[in-house]
Amino acid sequence: MRFTKFLLLSVAMLTFTALQADVIGYWRFENDSTVGEATTGPDLSATGTVTSNAIPGSGAGSDFFDPVPQTSSANNRMADFGARAGHLGVGTGTTGLNATTFTVEALFNAGAGDSSYNNYLVSSWDDGGNDRSWAIGLGRSSGSPPSGVTNNELFLLWSGGGSSTNVIPTGLDITRGEDYYLGMSFDQSSTTWTYHLKNLTLDSSLTTGTLAGSTLYDPGAAGLFQVGKISSDTGGNNRWDGLIDEVRFSNEVLPSGQLLVAIPEPGTLALLGISLAALALTARRNRRN
Q1: How many C-beta neighbours within 10 Å does residue 61 have?
Q2: Cα(180)–Cα(110) distance, rounded to whole angstroms?
Q3: Could you tell me which of 9, 111, 142, 176 has the fewest CB atoms within 10 Å of its CB?
Q4: Given this model, what pLDDT does residue 193 score?
Q5: Does the reported pTM lie above 0.90?
């Protein structure tokens, strides 16, 4: 009996683990008074103007998923960064957000805004000295996009030594004014980037691919994790223009089935349910005996 109980408990735990990403930061922007409040990890402080707005019935942000497919959590609000009006971030000395093998996910809608500047979605990029690591940006035609990047193309910045700047064009073109899901992973051991992109407005299929990279610099506690900006942009010109929601940061490369956009496999959920039910039945029998 004890072995049976142990076996059932092991199956349940393994199944539960398979359903849970190793999340070290999750910001849902559901609190309209504290927009950067974290579900997991440190809160993000706002600089400038960033508001938590209700998801509308139509227009920008209306196709951000509700509920979140992976977690079944209701999604009622989103972060509005205006036309590069503000950003969210943690200061140096905040540990735990400097993973160099990771998956970062976000919903976004890029506004039309000023075409003179590139826009940054999320980053770990302290440009004040030697603590650059990575950043995800969106190019603008007249904003001097990095070499090889075209207008409205997602691109990656990365640094191997902390002070250099290298660019990877992704080939992923974005239509401003439409809602998207993006998952971007980096595996330090294989130096490979993996992207997952879905146009939520058009309800397109999830596009997945890989990009060759190089070893990322680990900034340690000196790293700056920011949403809607890179730290080199002291004037705020390259802040995000538009909406961002459901930012989740995990310190592993997530398989597609564990992404926020993915609905958990029915078989996995069923196995967890059966295991828990069997455990409850075993406990009931033990009490009777």
Answers
A1: 24
A2: 9
A3: 142
A4: 98
A5: no
